[in-house]
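User: I'm curious whether this sequence folds into something compact or stays loose and floppy. Could you predict its structure so I can see for myself?
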Amino acid sequence: MGVSIIELVCRSEKRKNLLVYLKDGPRNLAAIKKALDVTSTGVLPQIKLLKDNDILVQKDDEYELSIFGNIVVQKILPIFKLTNTLEKNPEYWFSRDISALPMQFMERLGYLGDSEVIEPDINSLFDPPQELIDHLLVSQHVIAITSYFHPYYAKHFIGLAKKGVEINLIFTNDVYERIAEDYGEDAEVFFGLDNTNVYIHEGDLPVVSMVCADGFFLLSLLNKKGIYDHNKLISTSEEAVSWGHDLFEYCYLESQKKE
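Assistant: Here's the prediction. I'll summarize afterward.
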């Protein structure tokens, strides 16, 4: 093997994209060129290099990962995804405090690569993103984690629950008591509905807030100064929604259901 594996796989964007594409199965040259938007002269030298180093094999007119190549891609793919996440929104990620996130979720930040940062202007600082409102209105299942009180979320979740939407929430005890105090009878109705489950987390939650609706994900984190600056990350990717559901499950296991 003429070059190191890391150099071979990571130092060329074309090779990286080719390997990620081929992880789903064999492809011919025409499919590769179309999917990666490359020319024959641009991709054939990369294919040859990967074949020469036993990362790819050719069977008839199709190229696929070798057994060794498949192992390499499976191990390095999380790094590709993480790099993509950080490079897409560097100002956001390098200004966030992620120290409270459990390690398994830090390691899977690559799942959040296909996300958009929402930075509200001064006139809408306390308003939830319109994208969240739109998705909540058409969702049948909503889960959320929140460590702070937001009057919109409380009011809207109560309205959704009364319409029959299945809602599962994890609060700190302070947030729960604030909702119970401020919303009185509405809160009692909300907490008593069969389609609503509320869980109290006694310790510090790893995020400011996280919401997953049907096909939608929202995340809020403190910045490195320990301040909530209202910047939010949103996504409609399956991987981001999966990350959110797994984080909810993690916090759920450390919470007590409010009866």
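Summary: Residues 84 and 90 are 10 Å apart (CA to CA). The domain at 90-257 is CATH 3.30.870.10 (Endonuclease; Chain A).
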